[in-house]
Amino acid sequence: MMFDEDVALDMIRSSIVLLLSEKPLHGYGIMKEVETRIGRQVNPSLLYPFLKQLEKNGLVESTRKPVGKKPKNVYELTVTGKKLATRIYKRIASMVSMAIEPNLSVCFHCGCKIYEGRYQETIDGKERTFCCVHCAQAYKNELSSTAQLPEEN
Questions:
Q1: Is 51 among the domain residues?
Q2: CA Rg value for the chain
Q3: Is residue 121 classed exposed, middle or buried when 0-12, 13-18 and 19+ CB atoms within 10 A define those classes?
Q4: Quick one: 71 and 120 in the same domain?
Q5: Which end of the chain is less enclosed by CB atoms within 10 A, N or C?
Q6: Do 114 and 62 share a domain, yes or no?
Q7: How many separate domains does the chain show?
Q8: Do 96 and 115 belong to one domain?
Q9: Under 8 Å CB-to-CB from 17, ≥6 apart: which residues?
Q10: Domain hosting residue 12, numbered range
Q11: What is the pLDDT of residue 103?
């Protein structure tokens, strides 16, 4: 198997765990949710062995429940499985942060992080970046009010 296929499979496996962190699902429900959310089909030959592996490792419990006209195995994360989901969420968050961070700038007035839609203005000969025109105006108002204060002796 090629490396990119391994990575894609890991994403699908992670997606399965994350879906189960939201709610218990049966196998077909998992396949449909993965397809809807990430646009990839999950082959049953990947899904069911993976669910069995999760169950064997104490991360998932399955119970037979009525779904539609017949009972199906419904899979639910255990406490340990929920901890795994939290680790996956944190890892994804750090990856997203790593991808976005180089494109962020900081508002010169309020300090918020800006990804898109920044407002730039030259003030006192220096180019300043603000999140919006209102922050730029507030900064200029603060500058003018401090310039009008009498100097202390």
A1: yes
A2: 26
A3: middle
A4: no
A5: C
A6: no
A7: 2
A8: no
A9: 54, 59, 77, 81, 84, 85, 88
A10: 3-101
A11: 86
Residue 109 corresponds to which tokens in the numbers above?
């007035």
Give me the residues of the chain with pLDDT under 50, please: 153
Q: What is the 3-state secondary structure (H, E, C) of the chain?
A: CCHHHHHHHHHHHHHHHHHHHHCCEEHHHHHHHHHHHHCCCCCHHHHHHHHHHHHHCCCEEEEEEEECCEEEEEEEECHHHHHHHHHHHHHHHHHHHHHHHHHCEECCCCCCEECCCCEEEEECCEEEEECCHHHHHHHHHHHHHHHCCCCCC
72 assigned to some structural domain: yes
Q: Are 28 and 85 in a shared domain?
A: yes
Task: Check: CB of residue 77 under 8 Å from CB of residue 32.
Answer: no
Residue 86's Cβ-count burial label (10 Å; 0-12, 13-18, 19+) is exposed
pLDDT value at residue 97: 87
Tell me the pTM. 0.69
- Whether residues 36 and 93 share a domain: the answer is yes
Residue 137 shares a structural domain with residue 88:
no
Q: Are 118 and 130 in contact (CB under 8 A)?
A: yes
Could you tell me if 60 and 108 lie in one domain?
Answer: no
Q: Do 95 and 126 sit in the same domain of this protein?
A: no
Q: For residues 19 and 25, is the Cβ–Cβ distance under 8 A?
A: yes
